[in-house]
């Protein structure tokens, strides 16, 4: 029997495993909830994956999420989901070539259906969203595709009465070379606590120079996940200070600035929790635009955090485009530790 929280929820758990280990779990029926796999579809045919080339030596990895054993699965519009009544994992894959619609319309439809799915399962609150867009920096008829995506996403939040500004979920948005618009999300019954980064303008307040509609995400979110633990979900974080990209053209200093931003958002989160999260104890995904720059990014992480740190030894490196042309690297992360939200 699963231990239950005073809230009545079985705890949410996550473990980062190599592909063979996650396959073994799945074969044993010990991962009934779901996973987010990092690797190409060929590597990970059995699970929804991020269709990006893995640059780390350890190869394809997966974050395997565990909830209670009583999992219901269903579909709501374009959303496939699994839910135990307290925690929900969802996946959307929409191929523009099949749907014959532009990215703004598709993003709006995807998020419309996502919010319908949340309403249906009672897991009404997004904890974390992962967005992967084919050709994110490509032109979509006079407007960059990422900006089109932002149009549709923000409109769907507003239409659904969801927080499109303060209170938006933690998220990341990366570019994949090809394939479907791919959205993964984690939701729960209790709203997480949004966290912003004092070094950065909130993304939902970016000036219109970055597109007609701002991106819809908070810099991080804190959530109690049962069993006396609290999770920190850190959104995609890059070399942005204020609202501007800094260190254009220099992957080394962009990586250092990204780590300063991660440290700042962790400090802001720690002020809201009874525990301390630590930059050197994260499960992170490092997205690198140019494959040949991955060794430099890795070197900066090792110099800053130490080769033996959990963050460095558990990092997954993926080839991906970042949402601004001038960004070379982006890092997102989660961490779990015992503790609670500060009352
Ligand atoms: C940034 O800070 C970099 O559109 O959901 C980071 C995290 C970024 C999430 C999103 C975009 C998103 O603006 C880009």
In short:
The chain has 343 residues and is of the alpha+beta class.
CATH architectural type: 2-Layer Sandwich
Strand order of the largest sheet: 5-6-7-10-8-9
Q: Based on DSSP secondary structure assignment, what is the total number of beta strands?
A: 18
CATH fold node name:
60s Ribosomal Protein L30, Chain: A
Helix-and-strand structural type: alpha+beta
Average pLDDT taken over every residue? 92
Q: Main beta sheet, described?
A: 6 strands, mixed
Total number of domains: 1
Shape category: globular
Q: Using the CA coordinates, give the radius of gyration.
A: 19 Å
Instruction: Calculate the terminal CA-CA distance, rounded to whole Å.
Output: 30 Å
The string of secondary-structure elements, in order, is EHEEEEEEHHEHEEEEEEEHEHHEE
**What ligands can be seen in this structure?**
3-(2-carboxyethyl)benzoic acid
Beta content comes to 25-35%
In CATH terms, the superfamily is RutC-like
| Helix segment tally | 7
Write the layout of secondary structure elements.
Elements: E1 13-18, H1 19-27, E2 34-39, E3 49-51, E4 61-66, E5 72-76, E6 79-83, E7 87-94, H2 96-99, H3 103-121, E8 125-134, H4 145-159, E9 170-176, E10 181-188, E11 193-195, E12 220-226, E13 229-237, E14 240-241, E15 244-245, H5 251-270, E16 283-288, H6 294-305, H7 310-314, E17 316-319, E18 329-338
Parallel strand pairs: 2-3, 8-9, 16-17
Antiparallel strand pairs: 1-4, 2-4, 5-6, 6-7, 7-10, 8-10, 11-12, 12-13, 13-18, 14-15, 16-18
Helix pairs in contact: 3-4, 5-6
Bound molecules: 3-(2-carboxyethyl)benzoic acid.
